[in-house]
Amino acid sequence: MSVSTPMLVTFVIYILGMVLIGLAAYRSTKNFDDYILGGRSLGSFVTALSAGASDMSGWLLMGLPGAIFLSGISESWIAIGLTIGAWLNWKIVAGRLRVQTEHHDNALTLPDFFTSRFEDNSKILRVISALVILIFFTIYCASGVVAGARLFESTFGMSYETALWAGAAATILYTLIGGFLAVSWTDTVQASLMIFALILTPVIVIVAVGGLDSSLAVIEAKSIENLNMLKGLNFVAVISLLGWGLGYFGQPHILARFMAADSHRSIRTARRIGMAWMVLCLAGAVAVGFFGIAYFQNHPEQAANVSGNGERVFIELARILFNPWIAGILLSAILAAVMSTLSCQLLVCSSALTEDLYKGFLRKNASQKELVWFGRAMVLLVALIAIALASNPDNRVLGLVSYAWAGFGAAFGPVVLFGVCWKRMTRNGALAGMIIGAATVLIWKQYGWLGLYEIIPGFAFSSIAIVVFSLLGRAPSAAAQQRFAAAEAEYLAK
Question: Where is the chain membrane-spanning (predicted)?
Answer without folding.
Answer: 6-26, 67-88, 127-152, 164-186, 193-212, 232-249, 275-296, 325-350, 371-391, 403-422, 429-449, 455-473
